[in-house]
Design the sequence.
């Protein structure tokens, strides 16, 4: 039993050392920072994507937008959404004006 306990402790220490080496490797390679940035970006998304894994993959690959590009694109998207809301309000306003003008003209045409 003593040998088994010593062997288990030795194995646990070896596994812990391997885990720590792996963590250090990931940190040195920038993986931890990249994952953190992507996870923060996902957290800060106002409209959460339907597929979180796809979001992570797109933002981690070279094909996905760089972090600096992402911020620019996000700001542009927000601006475009605001502009779209303005235009939709203007369309409704013009439709109301058109409807009001057509109801005013309808009785005049029958006379």
Sequence:
């Amino acid at each position: 039993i003593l040998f088994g306990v010593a062997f288990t402790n030795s194995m646990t220490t070896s596994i812990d050392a391997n885990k720590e080496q792996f963590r250090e490797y990931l940190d040195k390679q920038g993986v931890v920072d990249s994952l953190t940035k992507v996870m923060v970006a996902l957290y800060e998304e106002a409209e959460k994507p339907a597929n979180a894994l796809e979001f992570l993959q797109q933002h981690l690959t070279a094909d996905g937008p760089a972090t600096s590009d992402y911020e620019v694109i996000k700001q542009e998207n927000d601006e475009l959404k605001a502009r779209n809301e303005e235009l939709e309000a203007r369309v409704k306003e013009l439709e109301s004006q058109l409807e009001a003008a057509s109801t005013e003209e309808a009785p005049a045409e029958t006379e």
